[in-house]
Amino acid sequence: MENAKNNTMIQSLQVGMSIIDLIAIQENPLKFTEIQELTSITKSNLYKYLNTLTHLGLLERDKKNGTYSLGSKMIEYGMAAIGNQDIISKVTPYLQEISLHTSFSALFAVWTNDGPVIANIWSSNNGLNIGANIGTRLPIQSSSGKIFSVFNPPNLTKEWKDKELAVLTDKERTYLLNDEGLIEENFISFAKEPLVPYVSSLSTPIFNYNKELIGAITVVGFSQLISQDLNDDLSQYLLSMSNQVSKRFGYKRPV
Question: What's 15's DSSP letter?
Answer without folding.
Answer: H
